[in-house]
Amino acid sequence: MEVILLERISRLGQMGDTVKVKDGFARNFLLPQGKALRANEANKKKFEGQRAQLEARNLERKSEAQAIADKLNGKTFVAIRSAGETGQLYGSVSTRDIADLITAEGFSLNRNQVELNLPIKTIGLHKVVLALHPEVEASVTINIARTADEAERQVKGEDLTSAQAIYGIEEAPLSDEFFDEDEEGEENA
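^ Large ribosomal subunit protein bL9, sequence as received from the core. Prediction below:
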């Protein structure tokens, strides 16, 4: 099915482009959400008549998204989760969890705006990109830790999965004396 895009859609095209998409994508997503019109002569004329209005609305949305992105860029959000000693989470942190975390801080964000290839399954600092508008992105850091104290230590740069962090001991190499006895025994044999 050919449609006329009413806004920029990533991996598809710019506003005003006529693109061919699968019927289900057009019927179930683009048309109901008002992101596209069926490509026919009547709709092409309708679009040309509304083009200036649509561009103004798009520019307004973009400026709002840019204002939010300026506030969000570089900001760190802390998520407290239970995890094993090696840093593996019991469960994972998904796009929904990240959206809820950012929304709790007073920002309006939908889970579909969080760009995350795979759920996060380890503690640590993780960079996450937020697509606030098709042309505006923000980058935030999600600090996943077992406790608030650990979150503060991670920000300072500590590795919380090492033996020292877990048990409070230094990882020392085995002494040479341990091996000297075996080597002498082998020479005598």
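The domain at 73-167 is CATH 3.10.430.100 (Ribosomal Protein L9; domain 2).
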